[in-house]
Amino acid sequence: MTKFQRQVLKRFPDAKLSWNDDGYRIVTVNGESLIEEYFLPETRDDDKAWEYASIAAKVTQNFNRTHPDRIDHSSLEEKIHRIENRKRKGKQNAKKQTKTA
User: Fold this and answer.
1) Residue 9 sits in which domain range?
2) Burial readout 2-21 (b: 16 or more C-beta within 10 A, e: otherwise)
3) 8 and 35: one domain?
4) Structural contact between residues 24 and 17, judged by C-beta atoms closer than 8 angstroms
5) Are residues 54 and 11 in the same domain?
6) What total number of domains does the chain contain?
7) Alpha helix locations (H) across the chain?
8) Which of 13, 14, 32, 100 has the fewest CB atoms within 10 Å around its CB?
9) What is the pLDDT of residues 13-70, one digit of tens each?
10) How many other CB atoms are found less than 10 A from the CB of residue 33?
11) Are 17 and 43 in contact (CB under 8 A)?
12) Are residues 59 and 78 in the same domain?
């Protein structure tokens, strides 16, 4: 098993290599073609087909990681609130130090 096969099978566990008149392509059990979904070319080399599918898996993972619907804005608001509290406390401590000096 190559590095590309492991990467694809981790993301798409039911992916398999298929051959048609145009060349190799990676398909899933339900018959969905990953090559057609991601507009990747079919190839005559099976290793190249796994490499193309690996690229598709990486793109999917990166897109899902950075998709705006996936971000929870409440945690961002909490982070900003903590930062503002630290700034406020820093200003209060600086005023206390100037009064005592």
Assistant:
1) 3-69
2) eebbebbbeebeebeebeee
3) yes
4) yes
5) yes
6) 2
7) 3-11, 34-37, 46-66, 73-100
8) 100
9) 888 877 777 776 666 655 566 656 677 777 888 888 888 888 888 887 887 777 767 6
10) 15
11) no
12) no
